[in-house]
Amino acid sequence: MSTRGKFQPGQSGNPAGKAKGTRNATTRAIEALLDGEAEVLTRTAIELAQGGDTVALRMCLDRLVPPRKDRPITFALPPITTTDDLPLATGAIVAVVAAGELTPSEAAEISKTLDVHVRAIEATELHRRMAALEARGT
Question: What angle do CA 75, 81, 87 make, to 5 degrees?
Fold first, then answer.
């Protein structure tokens, strides 16, 4: 069996890698096909949407109003300065979810932030305790 035309294991056929800005051949071909047709295609999609085509309507609406990824949330959250404050904070989150002011997924994201904050508090407290023990030992 010949190995001609094959690269040796661990050896790249293009050590410099793909050049910056190089686009996929399929993307280039599609762009060439669509070149100059954007206005006609857009008008057709709008007309289909106006005629009741739900797929075209969804496509047009997605372009006009993209799905919201995130939103600012304002609610009363007690300060968290020690790990003892965590139950009050999680209680506040549960209360706003129960009141319908916050979705469960939004509450989960906020809870992740609280978790990171509490871990930072725990690390700070541990560092402080270790420094105090080291100071007593010297």
Answer: 60
